[in-house]
Design goal:
Helix content of chain B: under 10%
Number of strands of chain A: 11
Structural class of chain A: mainly beta
Order of helices and strands of chain B: EEEEEEEEEEE
Oligomer: heterodimer
Largest sheet of chain B: 6 strands, mixed
Structural class of chain B: mainly beta
Mean pLDDT of chain A: 93
Mean pLDDT of chain B: 94
Shape of chain A: globular
Largest interface: A-B, 28 and 27 residues
Number of strands of chain B: 11
Strand content of chain A: over 45%
Distance between the termini of chain A: 37 Å
Shape of chain B: globular
Number of helices of chain A: 0
Low-confidence stretches of chain B: none
Number of helices of chain B: 0
Largest sheet of chain A: 7 strands, mixed
Strand content of chain B: over 45%
Helix content of chain A: under 10%
Chain lengths: 113, 115
Amino acid sequence: DAGVTQSPTHLIKTRGQHVTLRCSPISGHKSVSWYQQVLGQGPQFIFQYYEKEERGRGNFPDRFSARQFPNYSSELNVNALLLGDSALYLCASSFWGEGDTQYFGPGTRLTVL
Amino acid sequence: KQEVTQIPAALSVPEGENLVLNCSFTDSAIYNLQWFRQDPGKGLTSLLLIQSSQREQTSGRLNASLDKSSGRSTLYIAASQPGDSATYLCAVLALSGAGSYQLTFGKGTKLSVIP
């Protein structure tokens, strides 16, 4: 079975631009979570979605938004990019979303110049 | 606010040694604790998950323990191998102030196993 997939692998943007990151969960998983990992730090929780509804939101500005589609794939959108948004963005999927093991994708490396 | 601390930040050991990685968390009201492995520039691989009611979990050469009351967990790696070289992350799942479950990660321990 395919694991969690994310696209694109790498992305370079300039300040002020907008970016969309995509995630496909493991088949059968209904929950998707997004994390931001700045170099040298642990991942920080951004959003969790379950059955297309937002279940949780971390301490991130409104420039960050996400959605989940009927096939359980998800998009993370970031507007008005700042240099500090440069990070590895990780997507994780799980069946229920609460308490069960999360399976992480390879991540999207975003560089903001 | 939940905070997770991992000590040491980096560790270098010769091949074959047994080693222990430490994780501490500030709020003992957790749902579970997970240990992950991360290779450079890659995503996370789940190693072990310990429910709050459990004391330990084992998988092959890995053993993780949980002392919820004291806010501590350890990851024991037996007979280390060069392929174990990676960053090991500890994460706790707990209810946030907003009422949803959130994973809070430590900064990780970077392990180097020298052949």
